[in-house]
Write a structure and sequence with these properties.
The complex is a heterodimer.
Chain A: E1 2-8, E2 14-16, H1 36-45, E3 54-58, E4 63-66, E5 70-76, E6 82-83, E7 86-87, E8 93-96, E9 100-103, E10 112-117, E11 121-122, E12 151-154, H2 168-173, E13 179-184, H3 193-201, E14 204-206, E15 214-218, E16 233-234, E17 239-242, E18 248-251, E19 258-259, E20 263-267, H4 272-275, E21 283-288, H5 291-305, H6 308-311
Parallel strand pairs in A: 13-21
Antiparallel strand pairs in A: 1-4, 1-12, 2-3, 3-10, 4-9, 5-8, 5-10, 6-7, 11-12, 13-20, 14-15, 14-21, 15-18, 16-19, 17-18, 17-20
Chain B: E1 2-7, E2 10-14, H1 21-36, E3 42-47, E4 51-56, H2 63-78, E5 87-94, H3 102-109, H4 113-122, E6 125-130, E7 137-140, E8 155-158, E9 162-166, E10 169-172, E11 177-179, E12 182-186, E13 207-212, H5 215-223
Helix pairs in contact in B: 1-2, 3-4
Classes of the chains: A alpha+beta, B alpha+beta.
Chain lengths: 313, 224
């Protein structure tokens, strides 16, 4: 194994993979990369398995020292990564020689950048996944965000990596959008007509008080018709639940697994990676699609992500 | 049984329209059948009071196909023999530094603090489901006389083992997490440990009783 030394961690840097889905009975939410599409593409460019653990950085990246060298790929948002003052372009493998450091700065576009490493970042699995669950302090690196002087194990490169490039149209198709497509939530009918049209036509601003658990939205208040107490039930990833004050919250990867607020809508699977790239103060809109249309979009996205021919030149 | 699409990849299955032992039992039986089957498209099951949220592989199946399969399994679930519930006893040191909201709850309900404790330990609770955080079991039903709303502003950190109440529910915080329930005591037990099998001390369908212990007993148990 080779090492990665955290010289500065950045705002919130955690180890993430595709998460641990399937433990709802234990009260464990899946966690995992906020932008699983970026994680997958970064790993594929390194010829890693698509869900290989990587570092997920948020808004501002860190500085990492590689005493033994590594091959890395930056995916997702552009945090202006540099090595020895030279820019490291995202979406392509870079050889980092032993004793070199990679420094990242503030984001230039979206919320999250993944530092993928050939061979992956090594941590002890919890329930079959390397991903960090910050709320409960489980998984990943000691169940927490990285700190200065943490030393992590990374994979040692054992093969030559093919110089492949993503097709430009792939990044265009998968570019994080600020218009999120949604299907109706299970309590859609509870909301008054004005609330439904506000959701469909209104603009919402991502609040500063947003994180991997959920994104709070400022904007039109969404009033429910009845004040009937809802019985808590399971909450899907991407559910848009509405608090009694009418504020919408998009439940995200570290969400509580159940909730007692009515859900007006749900972000479709094919747009969940866009949620992971939203920054505080971003203005977003919603567009309703049918379940059938959402499924078509999901299947098409999965086909694209599963096809080497369609992804790479 | 009622079905409701929850997202493009999730289906809510309601086994009843109110919190009741019958609806919950029906959900637990369906859960048992679902977990015993090897269903390739099944990604997650999230039980709650009277529902199961089924997350599925939307490339393989759609809502109608999931619904058909669940309906078929529910027929089998009905015929399952009932399981004898497991009883879990939880020692709790009430009040003081471990239960900072005990006096508040007592004042709100016009009861002496001892009466709140007495009512809390008098019942055997049912573990409806786990949620919020790993190992956090929603236990009910709390006596109406000591039901209390959540805090207006949740605490940024609640100590592991804290016993809280919210509405007609009670629960034990398995880890130090933020939390809005009113804290009336703390257990020295480690409710959730990732290096233990099973990790959680309380599972869905269990029965839970609380037993009062002194501060000295609490500290001794923590040292053990």
């Amino acid at each position: 194994m080779s090492l990665l030394v955290v010289e500065s961690p950045g705002l919130q840097t955690t180890v993430q993979d595709f998460g641990r889905e399937g433990f709802g009975v234990l009260g464990v939410s899946a966690s995992g990369a906020a932008d699983s599409v970026a994680l997958r593409l970064g790993n594929l460019l390194l010829e890693n398995a698509p869900g290989t653990p990587a570092l997920e950085m948020t808004l501002t990246g860190g500085t990492f020292f590689f005493p033994d060298g590594a091959v890395i790929c930056l995916a997702g948002a552009n945090f202006g990564a540099q090595m020895d003052g030279k820019m490291l372009e995202p979406w392509m493998p870079h050889a980092i020689f032993p004793g070199k450091r990679v420094a990242l700065g503030a984001t230039r576009d979206f919320a999250r950048c993944y530092l993928c490493v050939a061979g992956g970042v090594g941590v002890v699995d919890f329930l079959g996944s390397a991903s960090t669950h910050l709320l409960s302090g489980l998984g990943g690196w000691e169940g927490r965000a990285l700190r200065k002087d943490d030393v992590l194990q990374i994979g040692r490169l054992e093969k030559n990596i093919r110089r492949r490039k993503l097709r430009p149209e792939v990044l265009e198709t998968l570019k994080p959008e600020k218009k999120l497509r949604v299907t109706r939530g299970p309590q859609f009918d509870w909301f008054v007509e004005e609330a439904r049209s506000a959701l469909a036509g209104g603009e919402f601003v991502v609040s500063e008080d947003s994180n991997r658990i959920g994104l709070r939205l400022d904007g039109p208040r969404l009033a429910a018709q009845s004040r009937a107490e809802m019985i808590s039930e399971g909450t899907p990833l991407g559910a848009i639940q509405v608090t009694p004050s009418g504020q919408a919250i998009v439940l995200f990867v570290e969400q509580q697994t159940t909730g007692g607020y009515p859900k007006i809508a749900n972000v479709i699977g094919a747009d969940l990676h866009c949620v992971g790239q939203l920054r505080p103060r971003d203005t977003i809109r919603f567009e309703e699609v049918t379940l059938a249309a959402a499924r078509e979009l999901w299947i098409e996205q999965q086909r694209l992500l599963g096809s080497e021919e369609r992804l790479f030149t | 049984m009622r079905f409701q699409a929850a997202s493009d990849q999730a289906l809510l299955v309601y086994l009843g329209e109110e919190i009741s032992a019958a609806a919950h039992e029906r959900g637990v039986r369906l859960l048992r059948v679902l977990r015993s089957e090897r269903i390739k498209w099944l990604r997650n099951i999230q039980p709650a009071y009277c529902s199961l949220l089924i997350t599925f592989d939307a490339v393989a199946v759609d809502h109608a196909e999931v619904q058909a399969k669940i309906s078929e399994l529910e027929m089998r679930a009905k015929k399952l023999p009932a399981l004898k519930p497991r009883l879990v006893e939880v020692p709790v040191c009430y009040g003081g530094e471990f239960g900072p909201d005990l006096e508040d709850v007592a004042a709100q309900r016009g009861l002496p603090a001892e009466k709140v404790v007495e009512l809390h330990i008098a019942r055997t609770y049912h573990a409806y489901f786990l949620g919020f955080a790993p190992g956090f079991a929603y236990l009910g039903d709390l006596a109406e006389e000591i039901a209390a709303p959540r805090l207006e502003t949740p605490r940024k950190e609640v100590a592991a083992g804290s016993v809280g109440i919210a509405g007609r529910q009670t629960a034990i915080y398995p880890q130090a997490t933020p939390g809005g329930w009113r804290l009336i005591g703390r257990t020295p037990l480690e409710i959730f440990r990732k290096d233990r099998e099973p990790m959680g001390m309380i599972a869905i369908g269990d029965q839970v009783r609380f037993r009062p212990i002194t501060r000295a007993e609490f500290l001794a148990a923590r040292r053990a």
